[in-house]
């Protein structure tokens, strides 16, 4: 018996291996560093030279480390037909950044348990992407954690899908801070007592469709299609509807860098993109509803990127400050979303971004319905901090009560009782929206710049002549 | 295949997690998903059933159960001819909330709507928290039909939908429901004239002119 030859073993790594070029993992975050800092940044982040070049970043004392960040470059990357931030490694760097982790001033009113936790617990096992038991418990901790810090927020079904995405990408620790800020920045309108404000968002989709494609809009009216097919699109940023997880990550890259209304523009772009197929459907609203419900599930990455470009075009053509000038509550996430200059200043100097809504209504709170039940009041007096146990109201709910927006918002109840069917309900929704949405700018006579200048010049000339003639007398 | 005598609109309502979507899935696709996705907003399913000698298409709207969604789901009540009000026999609170659901259904739907009370998950007999008698009593008091089903084993699922359809059909025969009125949740199907034996003469004449 001849023993088989032992494999060649050397304690030293093989020589040949060094000939194969080793591709260093490129620090992709570098591309989102401002150009003038980029050289220093790449040096500083390379492992071997880190200690030597650490000081080469050369920040002045009042500059924040975040001032290196080129926020516009991040936005550009997310808005263009690219793969977005591509890897989850990079997302772990950028998602906390774009949700202003550490920069957004967040006030909390921690409570021991949140009222919606029982519903929440039922939904943990019913996410769009199945989670293992360990992840489920993480998700529960995450969601309950955010809700307990902000007792005025209400849980709705679909938030579990949103938070699942953050949990899968960021892991438990990072996800908590990001989720909290994202819910406050983007989803808090939907987290009020009822879905009053969801109707505003849904109506905006139709308003955009009406402006962009009149024929499709006319058809929608004929079919009597209510806009509720888009409910889950807006409430979960499509994480309940899109089948592939990569696409959802890509879409979240986009939504996280943009305005809260971007999901509305994206939904409108999606419906407009299907207009050809919709026109050939039988004119029955159930089939339209089903067709649109199924549409996001069949998207591919290329189509998704196309839709992102399309929604950017819609945004440019119908900017929200003109198209939806009066549609939103002063404490709505649409009204308080930080402007790009605020963001840049915050990044530059590390100044926290203040969202007014967090301070104004809640500080002047008088707790509602506390006195109604004696058992609750005894519990309250036993609590250490009275502020902790008081049921806090959502600023949007509170402001509706306090400022009495009845003049502009007819109440849901009245509208519904008077209406004899889906059609009239939907018409009522549209009418209500029309009171808000100012799209008069399209109906105004189009005056070109030359005409305007010419009229101005003639007017001035006339005034001069008239003035001279009167002063001569 | 696509021809049918009538089209009935249904709506499924009830607390979250009682198995509304699973009932619909069992009825339309004959399958069961233990961990079914949440329903966010309103979803839709359809199937054709036979009642007597007539083919009837059921158009079923499956709604979200959470309270916040009610402002959205309410708008689907009015166009419905039948409502399936579902509770979970293993969770007492879902039975206790029936009164509010019923109130909503009565307030926002047609006066002649047929409501079927369904105690779902009857395969979990050992976890039962609401007795069959209680369900029957509630149904009797409020003038509802009652059935216990299991979306998992498909027990009584077919019956729940078909019995409701049969009652609506009876109402049409008696003349309680007006077929020509769109808001009653009933539509005439695109059936060939020979297949449908239409009871009402006015309907016949209307079909003739169209």
From TrEMBL, chain A:
Swiss-Prot/TrEMBL keywords: GTPase activation
Molecular function in Gene Ontology: GTPase activator activity
GO cellular component assignments: endoplasmic reticulum membrane
Matches recorded under PANTHER family: RE60063P, TBC1 DOMAIN FAMILY MEMBER 20/GTPASE
PROSITE patterns associated with the record: TBC_RABGAP
Protein name according to UniProt: GTPase-activating protein gyp8
Bias-annotated ranges (Pro residues): 1-10
SMART domains in alphabetical order: TBC
Superkingdom of origin organism: Eukaryota
GO BP, sorted A to Z: endoplasmic reticulum to Golgi vesicle-mediated transport
Organism: Dispira parvispora
Pfam families, A to Z: RabGAP-TBC (PF00566)
InterPro entries linked: Rab-GAP-TBC_dom, Rab-GAP_TBC_sf, TBC20/Gyp8-like
Boundaries of every Rab-GAP TBC domain copy: 99-259
Residue span of region Disordered: 1-20
Automatic annotation (TrEMBL), chain B:
Main location: membrane
Membrane topology classification: Lipid-anchor
SUPFAM superfamilies, per the entry: P-loop containing nucleoside triphosphate hydrolases
InterPro entries assigned to the protein according to its UniProt record, in alphabetical order: P-loop_NTPase (IPR027417), Rab_GTPases_membrane_traffic (IPR050209), Small_GTP-bd (IPR005225), Small_GTPase (IPR001806)
GO cellular component: endomembrane system
CDD domains, per database record: Rab2
Gene3D superfamilies in UniProt: P-loop containing nucleotide triphosphate hydrolases
Keyword GTP-binding recorded: yes
Protein name: Ras- protein Rab-2A
Native organism: Dispira parvispora
